[in-house]
């Protein structure tokens, strides 16, 4: 139903969308997740041409919405959008907010528009608020009214741009409940959300956006249970990440550890865990691993900390194949490393070496 090909959006100081490609089938429910500032909202706004793409093509049912001379209003009429901040008209009642576009754009009679509006207000649980002004409603009620307004236009595609981000936590559930019920109606839906459990439960597919692209695309079971790519895994598991590139012959271990301790303080990591991480890094890198490498050889050191389970994992990668550094440690160092870690795994893949250590 929707084809996106090499979509790019450039602003003067930032490029949120670099090369976005996707095929979306009719009736799919797709949640779009990822860190803040990775172009998720820009992506939706390009889809309905609230933003003009810099490059690329968007097709809706085979019709290009980006081609010169495209009838954007006609194609866009297939889409509805629910915004973060409701965008209701403050001087109109809730039922009038839902009626106005039906009368002006779909040329329905006021009675038809009113009947349709009341039907939808019943559906979202707001029939008793029809004659209220927006200021008399809670945030969750306003967002449900905004959803009803979108549905009144009979869209085939509904875009949700972080529909719960402006809400008090106590109101999030009522809005997600309405969206969940809509997901069973056969609408094609794209939802930018930070509600991970909701995304997992409701979606047929997940787009993880990062680095200006759809970095990983898969079923919820894959994305949340077994993500294939490193950034996806870090995001899903809410990992705090410390990364350093180390070059043999130009190693400043004091500076490296100072930066690590800044990371520790920022994330309030348990002291025992920090001591074990520190010990493993010092023993494996400085004593056993770096001496194996020739000048100029590089290592990538990553420490991933999960605040959910207070666990840390150390990942060491190199393009250079080397011996297992544990084999170069003396008995005391080996024993201490065993006491500090839960698991240790070293693999040589395509001439590259990777060590993964789960720290206690």
Structure description:
- There is one protein chain.
- With 360 residues, this protein is an alpha/beta fold.
- The protein has two domains: 2-228, 3-Layer(aba) Sandwich (Rossmann fold); 237-359, Histidine kinase-like ATPase, C-terminal domain (Heat Shock Protein 90), CATH 3.30.565.10.
- Helices cover 36% and strands 27% of the residues.
- The protein is built from twelve helices and 15 strands.
- The chain has a six-stranded mixed sheet with strand order 6-7-8-3-9-10, sandwiched between helices.
- A hairpin with a 7-residue loop joins strand 1 (2-9) and strand 2.
- The chain is elongated and about 85 Å long.
- The model has no long low-confidence stretch (mean pLDDT 91).
Based on the coordinates given, report the CATH architecture of the largest domain: 3-Layer(aba) Sandwich
Sequence of strands across the biggest β-sheet: 6-7-8-3-9-10
Helicity level:
25-40%
Distance between the termini: 49 Å
Number of strands: 15
The CATH superfamily label of the largest domain reads P-loop containing nucleotide triphosphate hydrolases
Summed over residues and divided by their number, the pLDDT gives a mean of 91
Give unreliable regions as ranges: none
What is the CATH class of the largest domain? Alpha Beta
What is the approximate shape? Answer: elongated
Largest sheet data: 6 strands, mixed
């Amino acid at each position: 139903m929707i084809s996106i090909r090499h979509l790019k959006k450039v602003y003067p100081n930032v490029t949120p969308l670099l090369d976005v490609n996707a095929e979306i089938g009719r009736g799919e429910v797709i949640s779009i997740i990822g860190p803040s500032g990775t172009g998720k909202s820009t992506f939706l706004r390009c889809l309905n041409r609230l933003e003009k793409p810099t490059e690329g093509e968007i097709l809706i049912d085979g019709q290009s919405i980006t081609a010169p001379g495209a009838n954007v209003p006609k194609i866009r009429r297939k889409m509805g959008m629910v915004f973060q901040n409701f965008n209701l008209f403050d001087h109109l009642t809730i039922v009038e907010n839902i009626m106005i576009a039906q009368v002006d754009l779909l040329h329905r009679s006021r009675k038809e528009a009113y009947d349709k509006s009341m039907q939808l207000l019943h559906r979202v649980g707001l029939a008793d608020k029809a004659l209220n002004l927006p200021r008399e409603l809670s945030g969750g009620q306003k967002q449900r009214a905004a959803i009803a307004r979108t549905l009144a236009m009979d869209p085939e595609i509904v875009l949700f741009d972080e529909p719960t981000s402006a809400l008090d936590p106590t109101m999030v559930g009522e809005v997600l409940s309405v969206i969940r019920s809509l997901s069973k109606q056969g609408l094609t839906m794209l939802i930018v959300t930070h509600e991970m459990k909701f995304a997992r439960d409701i979606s047929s597919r997940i787009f993880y956006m990062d680095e200006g692209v759809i970095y990983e695309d898969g079923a919820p079971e894959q994305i949340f249970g077994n993500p294939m790519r490193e950034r996806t895994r870090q995001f899903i598991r809410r990992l705090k990440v410390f990364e350093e590139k180390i070059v043999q012959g130009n190693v400043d271990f004091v500076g490296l550890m100072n930066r690590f301790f800044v990371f520790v303080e920022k994330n309030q990591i348990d002291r025992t865990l920090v001591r074990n991480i520190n010990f493993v890094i010092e023993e494996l890198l400085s004593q056993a691993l770096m001496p194996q490498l020739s000048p100029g050889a590089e290592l990538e050191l990553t420490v991933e900390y999960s605040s959910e389970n207070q666990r840390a994992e150390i990942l060491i990668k190199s393009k250079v194949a080397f011996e297992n550094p544990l084999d170069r440690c003396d008995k005391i160092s080996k024993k201490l490393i065993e006491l500090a870690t839960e698991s240790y795994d070293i693999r040589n893949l395509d001439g590259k070496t990777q060590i993964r250590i789960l720290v206690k």
